[in-house]
Amino acid sequence: MKLRKRLLKYFLIALFVTFGLVYAIKQGGPATLRLYIESGIGNCIEIPIMCVSPEDKFHEAKLDSEFIVGLHEYQLDQIHIHTPEGFKVVKQKITMQYYKKKKDKTKGSTIYIVQKPVDFFVILFSDVTKNSIKNDYDFVSRVMNAKINRIMNLQDAFFVIMKGIFTPDLGEQASVRIVKVKVGKFNGFISYNYDPLGNYFDCNLLEEGGGYYKVYIKDKAKKLNLDDVVSIISTIRLTDKPAV
Known about the structure:
Layout: H1 2-41, H2 65-69, E1 72-76, E2 79-83, E3 88-91, E4 110-116, H3 120-124, H4 126-129, H5 136-145, H6 154-166, E5 177-183, E6 186-195, E7 198-207, E8 212-219, H7 226-233, E9 237-238
Parallel strand pairs: 3-4
Antiparallel strand pairs: 1-2, 2-9, 4-8, 5-6, 6-7, 7-8
Helix pairs in contact: 1-6
């Protein structure tokens, strides 16, 4: 019942937003549409990542076997991951935040994990994706490449809004970047920022022949770098049996 109520809430919000977007396009075209989105999400100065796209080249990180050996295996339901000492692991949900920072009840360094089945997004948003999006990797790639200053039509606006939903708190974003990664069975994107108050990593990963994983790492002690995070996500695996 809670899931049905949540989906109904999201549908009504999406319906309201769609009417607003259609009105914005009819009244003033792309420029008015961009202003409409900025009024709800924010602009590139306030939220830099909304005008940042992935770097052209894949990030070439070498897995650090010595670092991996020093990690601790953790099982959360059916998800196995090796994590550094001092990190709490939490199973999380994708919520409709529209990039508003919510109060984080979990203090200290934390790793949040979301897992969804194959083609979760292309099925959920079939009306939007049926003409141009073939699989979840295409969907996530379109989300990561979305930029407020490139909105020209309703589909562009949709993916900008999705980027706001996908992206968790990354600090003040003074040096925020997005890189493409390929590690083992995973292809995907890592948005990251080294902030004075902590290092933040938002990993959106697609498994070959498998589903979607989001691994959000909030490193308050500033111990991890990008290559460490790539080593951590290389340890993810899904099992048939949940944790006892």
